[in-house]
């Protein structure tokens, strides 16, 4: 199996300057994972375009109470002795996955998911649709240091209604894509 293009980019350029994953796929499963590359090169998948931050950004009240820190210490306490007694590459890989997840949840870089911080005019230029929000989020992720962002949207396999299906998909994509390109151009990216 060949690796995802984002995995190859991470392998060649490194993870980037963020605690967030270096490769993020918004809207669905990518056609490939890291394959023969290190598991930390795998794409992180956020499968819901409607509200991509729902699973990542906890409320400020949740963080204020220190619940996340306490849960992390509790997990570490349970796992530490077991991991020492069962040394194996799979245990190490699971441990690295937990640490990666903790680093993401505790990161200040999660602010990239706060689309409400964007001016109304910018949000409107992308469109008030799941795809528009995903395109805006992708720009914010790249600005925060994520190396590769893919947005998976719709099925372009339109054998039964090729022209109508593509017309609908192109209409959906036109506004967010134009806003993304314009935004990236204006910011020098």
Spatial order of the strands forming the largest sheet = 2-1-3
End-to-end distance, in Å?
32 Å
Largest sheet: 3 strands, parallel
Query: Any idea what the radius of gyration is?
Result: 19 Å
Mean pLDDT across all amino acids = 86
Q: Report strand %.
A: 5-15%
The oligomeric status of these chains comes to: single chain
Q: What's the number of helices?
A: 7
| Poorly predicted tracts of residues | none
Helix share bin:
40-55%
TL;DR of this structure?
With 189 residues, the chain is mainly α. The chain contains 7 helices and 3 strands; from the N terminus they run H-E-E-H-H-H-H-H-E-H. It is globular and about 60 Å long.
Q: How would you explain this protein's 3D organization?
A:
Helices cover 51% and strands 6% of the residues. The chain has seven helices and three strands, in the order H-E-E-H-H-H-H-H-E-H. Strands 2-1-3 form a three-stranded parallel β-sheet. The protein starts with a helix and ends with a helix.
Notable features of this structure?
globular, three-stranded parallel beta sheet, 189 residues, 3 strands, mainly alpha
Please describe the topology of this protein.
Blueprint (H helix, E strand, L loop, with lengths): L4 H9 L9 E4 L17 E3 L13 H5 L2 H19 L3 H17 L14 H7 L3 H14 L4 E4 L10 H25 L3
Helix pairs in contact: 6-7
């Amino acid at each position: 199996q060949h690796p995802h293009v984002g995995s190859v980019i991470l392998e060649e350029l490194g993870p980037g300057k963020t605690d967030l994953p270096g490769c993020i796929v918004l809207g669905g499963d990518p056609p490939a994972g890291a394959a023969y590359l290190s598991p930390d090169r795998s794409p992180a998948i956020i499968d819901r375009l409607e509200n991509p931050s729902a699973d990542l950004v906890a409320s400020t009240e949740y963080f204020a109470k220190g619940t996340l820190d306490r849960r992390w210490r509790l997990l570490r306490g349970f796992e530490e002795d077991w991991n020492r007694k069962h040394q194996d590459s799979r245990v190490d890989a699971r441990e690295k996955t937990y640490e990666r997840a903790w680093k993401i949840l505790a990161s200040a870089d999660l602010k990239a998911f706060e689309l409400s911080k964007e001016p109304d005019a910018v949000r409107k230029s992308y469109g008030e649709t799941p795809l528009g929000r995903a395109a805006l989020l992708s720009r914010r992720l790249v600005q925060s240091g994520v190396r590769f962002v893919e947005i998976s949207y719709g099925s372009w396999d339109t054998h039964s209604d090729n022209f109508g299906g593509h017309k609908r998909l192109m209409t959906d994509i036109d506004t967010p894509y134009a806003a993304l390109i314009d935004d990236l151009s204006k910011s020098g990216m």
